[in-house]
């Protein structure tokens, strides 16, 4: 797989558009996922993911072929997102920065109810806990990849994810949604 | 603190929590971990924790999102636009470097009409010799006058080529 990526990079450097397209195709999901988790808005996330690839292709020669490609790409994406967030801070807008789930009543489906409760609990987590948790569990990035993207040590990322799990469980317990959903899941 | 015996080893709630985190870190299902399940059976608090975590991870994959279908195509278009812009910028930079180099050469090698005239004043000669010398001097002067121009043009071409190659 690593050789495959190296080959794609080499061909991209030579200007092969098919290879570039293959690289985008392969990595668009984790890059977009990271941007979406960091920025919270689909449109901004797509813009930053696009900019990430444009920048990556521009500085493809700087990639060390002895290392993994994805963490390098995620580091670029993380930088772009931080810049975007910085610009947002300087120019406050009326748009929502964090995904919010409307406060609806459960519709009788426990799993859906839990998903809503989970989103609500996520919204209450500390920003870095929420981000690290989502990147690890939803985007399925490794701790090293998250560390590269967020520009922080692996141990810190691990701590954030563990704390996020603990706090989520606590919040769900307090909302008393766990028991009914657990029973429903066990029955399946 | 509650205990549960499993395979001859005792597990505390603290160990349970740390093992649960380790299992989740490895993206394994806690349900399939015998030690965790054994402890959970004897400890209601840890059983609830296990249930909650399992419920959490049953729910999570539903929230994953993908970019729009034409995303890759838009990236390629953006890359193309950027490449064209880069090429245009490189040409402009090359032209600026070439003009600057040409001007520099012209200024350095420009001697001025007075200097050329002064250089052409030699000892007195006979009439035919004077005429021949005068013609040669004029040819020389014209060549000298054009030297900065030809030199600059040559340098400009070279500078343009080099800038285009390396910028």
Description of the molecule:
The complex is a heterodimer of chains A (188) and B (167). With 188 residues, chain A is mostly helical. Chain A is 74% helix and 0% strand. Chain A is built from nine helices and no strands. Chain A has helices spanning 2-13, 17-39, 42-58, 69-90, 110-124, 127-137, 143-150, 154-174, 178-187. In chain A, helix 2 packs across helix 3, helix 2 (17-39) crosses helix 4 and helix 5 (110-124) packs across helix 9 (178-187). The radius of gyration of chain A is 19 Å and the shape is elongated. The model of chain A is unreliable at 99-106 and 184-188 (pLDDT under 50). In chain B, strands 1-2 form a two-stranded antiparallel ribbon. With 167 residues, chain B is mainly alpha-helical. Chain B is built from six helices and two strands; from the N terminus they run E-E-H-H-H-H-H-H. Chain B folds into two domains: 4-63; 88-166, no CATH class.
Question: Layout of SSEs?
Answer:
The complex is a heterodimer of chains A (188) and B (167).
Chain A: H1 2-13, H2 17-39, H3 42-58, H4 69-90, H5 110-124, H6 127-137, H7 143-150, H8 154-174, H9 178-187
Chain B: E1 4-6, E2 9-11, H1 13-25, H2 34-42, H3 44-59, H4 71-109, H5 113-120, H6 127-166
Antiparallel strand pairs in B: 1-2
């Amino acid at each position: 797989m690593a050789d495959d990526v190296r080959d794609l990079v080499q061909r991209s450097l030579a200007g092969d558009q098919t290879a570039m397209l293959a690289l985008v195709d392969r990595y668009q999901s984790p890059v977009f996922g990271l941007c979406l988790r960091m920025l919270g808005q689909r449109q901004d996330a797509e813009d930053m993911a696009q900019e990430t690839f444009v920048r990556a292709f521009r500085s493809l020669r700087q990639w060390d072929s002895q290392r993994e490609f994805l963490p390098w790409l995620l580091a670029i994406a993380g930088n772009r997102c931080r810049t975007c967030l910085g610009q947002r801070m300087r120019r406050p807008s009326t748009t929502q920065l964090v995904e919010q789930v409307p406060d609806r009543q459960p519709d009788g489906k426990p799993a859906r109810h839990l998903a809503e409760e989970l989103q609500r609990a996520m919204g209450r987590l500390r920003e870095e806990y929420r981000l690290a948790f989502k990147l690890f569990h939803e985007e399925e990035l490794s701790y090293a990849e998250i560390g590269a993207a967020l520009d922080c040590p692996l141990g810190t990322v691990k701590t954030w994810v563990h704390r996020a799990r603990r706090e989520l469980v606590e919040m769900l317990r307090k909302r008393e949604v766990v028991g009914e959903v657990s029973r429903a899941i066990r029955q399946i | 603190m509650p205990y549960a015996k499993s395979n001859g080893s005792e597990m505390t709630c603290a160990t349970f929590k740390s093992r649960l985190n380790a299992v989740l870190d490895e993206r394994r299902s806690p349900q399939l971990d015998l030690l965790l399940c054994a402890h959970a059976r004897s400890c209601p608090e840890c059983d609830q924790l296990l249930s909650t975590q399992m419920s959490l991870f049953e729910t999570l994959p539903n929230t994953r999102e993908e970019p729009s279908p034409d995303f890759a195509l838009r990236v390629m278009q953006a890359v193309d636009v950027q490449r064209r812009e880069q090429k245009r910028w490189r040409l402009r930079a090359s032209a600026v470097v070439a003009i600057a180099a040409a001007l520099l050469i012209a200024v350095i090698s420009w001697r001025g009409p007075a200097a050329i005239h002064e250089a052409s004043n030699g000892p007195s000669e006979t009439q035919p010799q004077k005429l021949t010398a005068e013609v040669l001097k004029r040819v020389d002067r014209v060549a000298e006058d054009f030297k900065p121009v030809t030199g600059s043009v040559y340098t400009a071409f070279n500078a343009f080529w080099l800038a285009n190659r390396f910028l």
